[in-house]
Amino acid sequence: MRASKYLVPTEKENPSDAVVASHRLMIRAGLVRKSGSGFYFFLPLGLRILKKIENIVREEMDATGALEFELPIMTPSEFWEQSGRWSVMGPEMMRVKDRHDQWYALGPTHEESFSYLVKPLLKSYKDLPINVYQIHTKFRDEIRPRFGVIRSREFIMKDAYSYHLDEASLDATYQDMRTAYRKIFQRCGLKTIPVQADSGTMGGSASEEFMVVSPIGEETLLLCGDCGYNSNSEKTPFIAKAEDSPNGPKDKKEVATPGKKSIEDVAAFLNVRPQDTIKAVAFQNGKEKLLVFLRGDLELNEHKLKSYLKWSDLDMIPEPELKNSNLVPGFIGPSDVGEGFKVILDSSIQKDFAYVVGGGKEDFHIQGYVPSSEIKIQYETADVALAREGDPCPTCAKTLKAEKGIEVGHIFKLGDKYTKSFQIQVLDQQGKAKTLTMGCYGIGVNRTMATVIEQCNDDKGIYWPISIAPFEIGLVTLTKGEEQDAKALEFYENLKNEGFEVFWDERDLGPGFKFKDSELIGFPIRITVGKKFFESGEISIYNRKLDKDETFKFIDFDDLNTRVENLRQELYQELLGD
Amino acid sequence: MRASKYLVPTEKENPSDAVVASHRLMIRAGLVRKSGSGFYFFLPLGLRILKKIENIVREEMDATGALEFELPIMTPSEFWEQSGRWSVMGPEMMRVKDRHDQWYALGPTHEESFSYLVKPLLKSYKDLPINVYQIHTKFRDEIRPRFGVIRSREFIMKDAYSYHLDEASLDATYQDMRTAYRKIFQRCGLKTIPVQADSGTMGGSASEEFMVVSPIGEETLLLCGDCGYNSNSEKTPFIAKAEDSPNGPKDKKEVATPGKKSIEDVAAFLNVRPQDTIKAVAFQNGKEKLLVFLRGDLELNEHKLKSYLKWSDLDMIPEPELKNSNLVPGFIGPSDVGEGFKVILDSSIQKDFAYVVGGGKEDFHIQGYVPSSEIKIQYETADVALAREGDPCPTCAKTLKAEKGIEVGHIFKLGDKYTKSFQIQVLDQQGKAKTLTMGCYGIGVNRTMATVIEQCNDDKGIYWPISIAPFEIGLVTLTKGEEQDAKALEFYENLKNEGFEVFWDERDLGPGFKFKDSELIGFPIRITVGKKFFESGEISIYNRKLDKDETFKFIDFDDLNTRVENLRQELYQELLGD
């Protein structure tokens, strides 16, 4: 490709609304332009990268035997009503009414559509397992679109759905997908960590997210450097440290704590540690009311709580409403629960130890409260506390480290939620109708592109992994006069005919400008044929990632092609070796 | 690909809602399934065809130097307001409101988006011309979706937009697109006719549609077999035949025509031909009122009328309203026009000849009415009559023939409508700011797929042009026992390794079933390795289009591969030779 016939709208200045590297560089390198909040135009250079990522995803999905489809973006409301999600999906799901007043969703995900589609196609166990996917546009009306294409409202996803007769078959495909995802991201030059994730309220039995560690990540990951246990903090079980066992006063008595509502204030006032106390949090969900008690120093993990309860919503109960239930905010204790409340004790609470708890009335707490002997009401015990950096690893008890992460992929055992609501059954080997079980597997294509930039940039711009670079080679020629122009063309034709993907910058611009553009855009290999070549036959091959120039005397095209091919191979090898 | 690992949901029965061949066969061959009215799931076999068509379109567009983009489907209402089309586009444009109450259209076309995008990218005449395109999903809320993917509500289009400093440059790109479209459809094995088309109310100066002649077409084409003039009847100039010059009574007088309102009744009653009369049609458009007079035997062409007037709407004036304007329906004459009416005389009216016209009052006409001397009011003359089969060709005066056509592509000189509203200007060679001129070029990808089937089907099913067949070769093997299975696998591996695209039907089904499936789906080449091979070494190569089997003694794979490659080449050659 010749630069003069292409569109290279590079920018010197950072766009004012771009706060992360990938967003800044995608705009500056002329890969995308903004159409509106959360919407991006893909320009030719950017689209090439996107399509290369799509192709890698497609190749690896096909290699596992998955079958590619393309489903309508517009999904009828009936599909969503059948699964019960029309009312659950909330304002993130964009909805549109047609001229006959029929409602549709602009598919943010396609469990319903694929289930509707495959139901009549699956007739017997012989048709199983099946893994169906598409690479297509999705919509999500983010309340705060940001970070460029990392959190946009219209984006490309690969979404796959597998159907199985039994759990063993689901697990086999789940493991295949796990392997395929590792290959996909590796081939894209993206370092990811699979972490255990919340399987949410859908009743799934396993779920892993492929995370890119990044300071701009919106997820908190807890990683164990020792045993390799990694999880999203939404999911991490909380393991208490021995030194956090309560060691406050053991004699039970009511103590006045005037005006001391927060755990910090109470602990300081009574001269105990926060972990010697128990605090209460109150929630509601439509009709149900809930009180959760957990160790005073811990935070509640709403994801784990929702998963445990199988609630999709969780709203704090406002103070006035608590008072209506005879509960005194700041002073609620486990012996103090009115009618109609479900009660959960977080498993961080050691029931045979003495704690400081709310006194059940204004300005009083109780010390020396031993839950096992004192709690008279019905309660359930569950792990609903948020694990933190420094907590013990749930697998090996070594110390967890926290990182921020961006999710680029997600694999999920869905169970029978959709196969039940769409009544997807086949006859098994014994001729008995059996409801299938299901998995789903997503990859954010645009987000993969952006996170590669987050990992592969320096102060000059982007250095693309060769597998997804818009072009493998940037050829910069600097010529004066027809004779030199002709020689430059010879270089271009030679490289092109040799099968290299070449972006030839033959524009009538100064060397500084052309070098800067090529480094900003990030072609992995740059070949310069400039003044030195015409003076003394010297040309250079530049490795963008290493920012390293190799200068040598031009012998002939064979020699040049061998050098370029060697570097090209080396760069592909690097990806696999990582 | 192995059939047993694929999805081949062929159907024996025709779907009840499918009235055209392509719709029936796409469902029966398992290429698509219906999701809802006007929405289709693309299954793996169907998607392969769609992607092959997309690739042909992409290759030919790229070969012209056009640059591929991908734009958001959601286009902000502001873009449409800037061009004035938000209120004009009507209910076919689907609209959606986001959580911040901002309106978007699901892009049915992208003149606005591309214009918004390219405006800041085009800085000088050196950046021109530029031709930008995408291959992406479009939405159109058809009032009556039908014929499967031929008229659906969500579909893939290639839409291109070119920007130019002057008309000569636009014309060059327009001609390039014309050539590229011919190549694209030829490579897809689709016979198309470019016809002159209505350039609508957008002020464009030229427009051609690429039409597939088909009895199910919704457009009427008028074709001249002599000079090659082809046009959509929406656009065809009407040329009067000499024998249709009026030859009714020449003495002017009022004649009673009690109850004779229709042209047929009046003509019969007065013993003249319909072409000896003049009729009136009344329209309105918001505020303006219009009376059109044309020869009694002709139909009004509303497209030509709207084009002439540059009106986007045209509503008949109801009879009661006509009466309010002192016009008597059925008896309106050219001397009888009240205040506030614009008047058009169709150019079919020979103004120096005597006609029968409305008398201006109930139950009366005037005969011997010579427009040139009688009409006192202001009027304009314009060609607004519908040309018909049998009329003279506007180019060579030979006779026009009518055909029905389906539009698969459209090229259009848009002029400066969008470049003006988006103020797209660059500095020309003299440093003067100049507003650009624009072209647009569309291809319906799904519709191309369906119309190929309309042209390439017989009572067995589809016969795909090899260029877009889901697989080039269907290998049918019929085996018993492990040894024969192993031999079959050898055939498959050989063909695959030779680089052929093979669909191997190794399913445990009878030969009849497997042959029928392969003929229904329409692989261009079928190779059968069956009973006869295992008995006497005989195999067959079947040419699906010719429905012709060639049986021969198997010698070795080299011989087989040569035979297959020869047929494959022949089938590709056929496309180019057409």
UniProtKB/TrEMBL annotation, chains A, B:
- Keyword hit for Lipoprotein: no
Known EC number(s)?
6.1.1.15
Cellular compartment(s): Cytoplasm
Main localisation: cytoplasm
Alphabetized UniProt keyword annotations: Aminoacyl-tRNA synthetase, ATP-binding, Cytoplasm, Ligase, Nucleotide-binding, Protein biosynthesis
One Gene Ontology term from the biological process aspect of the record: prolyl-tRNA aminoacylation
What top-level class of enzyme does the UniProt entry assign?
ligase
Q: Which residues form the Aminoacyl-transfer RNA synthetases class-II family profile domain?
A: 46-465
Q: Provide any one GO MF term from the record.
A: ATP binding
Reaction(s) catalysed (UniProt annotation): tRNA(Pro) + L-proline + ATP = L-prolyl-tRNA(Pro) + AMP + diphosphate
What's a Pfam family in this record? HGTP_anticodon
GO cellular component entries: cytosol
Keyword hit for Cytoplasm: yes
PANTHER family, sorted: MITOCHONDRIAL RIBOSOME PROTEIN L39/PROLYL-TRNA LIGASE FAMILY MEMBER, PROLINE--TRNA LIGASE
Instruction: Give the protein's biological function.
Output: Catalyzes the attachment of proline to tRNA(Pro) in a two-step reaction: proline is first activated by ATP to form Pro-AMP and then transferred to the acceptor end of tRNA(Pro). As ProRS can inadvertently accommodate and process non-cognate amino acids such as alanine and cysteine, to avoid such errors it has two additional distinct editing activities against alanine. One activity is designated as 'pretransfer' editing and involves the tRNA(Pro)-independent hydrolysis of activated Ala-AMP.
Q: Relate the assembly described in the record.
A: Homodimer.
Family, similarity comment: Belongs to the class-II aminoacyl-tRNA synthetase family. ProS type 1 subfamily.
Q: What is known of its domains?
A: Consists of three domains: the N-terminal catalytic domain, the editing domain and the C-terminal anticodon-binding domain.
Q: What name goes with this protein? A: Proline--tRNA ligase
Q: Which organism is it from?
A: Leptospira neocaledonica
Q: Which gene encodes it?
A: proS
